[in-house]
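Section 5.1 Outputs to date
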Amino acid sequence: MNRLLDLAFLRALAFGLLLTLWPMASPARAADAAFTQFIASLWPEAQAAGVSRETFDRETRSLEPDYKLPDLILPGRPKTGASTQAEFVQVPADYIKEASIARLAEEGERLLKKYRPALDAIEKRFGVPATIVLAIWGRETDYGRYALPYDTLRVVATQAYVGRRKDQFRTEFILALKILGEGVVTRKELRSSWAGATGYTQFLPSEYYKHGVDLDGDGRVDIWHSVPDALASAAQQLVNKGWQPGLRWAYEVKAPANVDCTMGVPEVTKPIGEWLRAGFVPVRGERLSAAEQAQQASLLQPEGIYGPAFLTTQNYFVIKEYNFSDLYVLFVGHLADRMTSPLPFAAPWSASTQLRSADVEAMQRHLTKIGLYKDKLDGKAGMQTRAALGAYQKSASLKVDCWPSDAVLRSMGAAR
């Protein structure tokens, strides 16, 4: 009798537990059902883009969202920002590590020889140096050795459904289906970053169709298996964004002691010769030709008045279109240079520390409030933020170094 009572008690307990958990599980199922309905609603757009019904059904069957991705807006949950990419949260000394540059440069020298015919064809056709496209490949996927962690289709589907840039990723999802339908790459091979960039040189699906090149002549653009195609596609993207043949990406210089670091923004450009006459000196003592001195350049001081300084040309900003980070461009440009020269940056990076993104964003908010900053509130200490910080430091009678620090943050806190 006691055994029967115990069994009845356990059943009642289990049923009560099920009722308790049901409200927690139901919203997830409802959300996934809504996701499935959303994906199904995209069929007319996919069809218009040339995706077959067979491809659409095969690739969307059992497709589930990934709510762990960054940059999503989920009902009932705090807003999540973009992933803390190393380019935006590390100081230069940590991101542009000499050991990493040296290793990738050595491998790049070997690849220059291995892919010489393809690289010669790229230089001739696009005017982009072989070292630049190799450096992009090295930075993006460690020359193809880095295994991208995400299912591209799942990423772009989730971002199209609950991401901050739904319209953009709606297009990326349709084009990812189109890529799969064309059979150049399998679903298993179509891996990406959390933001949907895929292939050796990290292209979004839309970039694949805008800039893809079939350099090896096999009748298809394959940035997942063909190194010539991937590197030529990277070169084509740079050209499409304004690459100028024969123009260096930047010149490292020693800045004069009285340099005004608030000038370090893209809008302030001068002929290189004018910068030189103002006291900026090429670090290697090189003599620049008249043509080089006539080129327009901007001042870049990645650590404010600390660390190396650069005069950056238009090609610097073209590379920045590939990844909107000064550290990314410095890594790629320097890696490209190191494939033909063993010299590191002449000036060492400083021992600066990086404030938390939330603190930098608080600074940006205050700078916006007082009219010194008009760019995005993104918590990233880029060119515009550093220049605005310098302007604030001038107004607050602080040391003007154009670098976000605890001292500046405390000053702004006292000002509010």
